[in-house]
Amino acid sequence: MTDRGQYAELNTARGTNATPVLPGDSLPGSHADRMIFTEASVPTEEHVANKGNVNALPNAKIQSGESPLTSRPDHRHRFFQGWALQLASALVGILCFVALLVIATNIHGKRLSSWTLPITPNAVVSILSTVSQATIVYAASEAISQLKWIDLAKRSSKLRHLQIFDDASRGAWGSLKFFWLGRQSSVLAYVSSLIIICSLAVSPLSQQILSYPQRSTLVTGIYSSVPRSQAYDYQDKGVSGVSGVISSLRDGALEAAAISGLYDLVRSPPFACPGSNCTYPAFTTLGIASSCTDVTTTTEQFCNNNATYPELQCNYTLPGGIDGYGLNLSSYGLTSAHSGWSHTIINTTTIIPMDYDTSFNTSSPLVQIGIIMFNDSDISAANFEVSTEWESTLQATVCEFSLVAQSYSNSTSINGTIQPGSIKSWPLTSDMGGALWNMTVQDEDFPGNRIFTINYFDFEYIIQVLELFDTTTSSMSYADALYYSGDVPATMQNIATGMSYHMLSGPNATTVTGDVFAIEAYIQVNRAWIILTIILSCSSALVLIAVIVQTHKAKVRPWKSKLDPLLYGFVLPSKGEESPHTWSESHVEFLPRRQTIVEQLKR
């Protein structure tokens, strides 16, 4: 006899008109897709052995008006029975975000180097976020799974409706489809689906929780330094003979600094920084200052032609000098058969005020330099006649160099680049007495010691260095470099700056110290990105508790995502019989024993 015949015989023997159903068959009646189940109705091995004995079948023990979906209330069925794992999962999720908040609060604003664990802060955040995400999804999935049995117990549902719930419990795609397929379902089911969808963002957003901005951090025990010169005295170094001839051995580096400035190669000041960034306190020192004035319009000019040669000679008197001794310069324009046309492009001269004024004091310039320049364009003379066009391109400048007191402030070194900060010059006066001259800053607002000292020979040597730029006593190469620099005032300033930087580390220099800063990464917690994890963890826990409450009220066993209810199904009444919510024992027939179901599933 076939299985169908056996079950038909079984139904006849019991006197029921319920339609037998084999695995794979559609359930009959208006509620054909509906299946009912209780734990008391699960067949045992004894029932399998008594396949043909109707009385050996388990008794469903369903009284009139009691749904087989529901469980009989007794002392063994407690409120949270069967939910231990899900509740533990929700608790773990809450503990994870609490731990995340505690860690974030403790590490916010601290140096990354203070983190001592073998794994990085990002790894810890990632682990906690991943665990929290897993617990969120698990709790929400189990809630949806249980809601499908509650939904089945409360109303007539087709089996494909169970599939919609099942898909929603398995991932974000099924949860998304639930919003348009799971019509008239529980609000909790929609909330659970939304939680599963939103949980996809937990891991990516957790990467935004921590950032590592870099800041300058004070390094203790290490200091920046810079020398300064309150006095400048090489004593008798480089001085020889009765007349006191001063050689470059006295301070050759000062001459090199001046020449480097001429070629726009000013060396960096001697600021020492043993770290990535440094700051320096304000300090004062001895230095050199320059100033230049354009005197083209006030320069006197006198020109005459040479009667013997085709030559034009001009003499110029520039305003300046001491006690009527002006700055006198000359130029020429000459043409010849051998060399063609040529004319002066630059000429310089220097005046040393101390050589002319016995009342000299150091508030006067060390040196005055007069400069005349002409356009070097190719202006030729036809038929060997003297051209006068070049005269109209005259540019006359007077520059001065002075010994001054200088104040430095806001000096820094950033990533190896020195920023001297603000440098202000203050004039000095002196009584010119003895080998050492004491010079004083008269301005009482000067921010340091107002008395400076310089050796007479060092004073003379500074003047000697500046005379290098006099074309009447020195090489024209320096004058040519000045001409082609393109900016005479800026070039003179470079010369003064280079000499001042060198004088910082003079023979009597003292050291001032500052602070050293290292670039360190700090931990910054962006708490806004933790909010999603908190909301989802709390929401999944609340939804789970709400589902447990509904399960208890509906008196449905906590099957959740188990497959047992599908393996041990029941046949519902045919159309026209009693309501599916009022059951008697005659309405229930078991499907074939489990062994037969497994065989059917394997086909």
TrEMBL record:
Q: Where is this region: Disordered?
A: 1-25
Please report a single Pfam family linked to this protein.
Answer: DUF3176
**What are the protein's UniProt keywords?**
Membrane, Transmembrane, Transmembrane helix
Q: Which InterPro entries match?
A: DUF3176
Q: Does the keyword Nucleus apply?
A: no
Mind telling me which residue stretches traverse the membrane in this protein?
A: 83-104, 187-206, 528-549
The protein's matches in PANTHER family, at most eight in alphabetical order, are given as: DUF3176 DOMAIN-CONTAINING PROTEIN
Name of the protein this chain belongs to: Uncharacterized protein
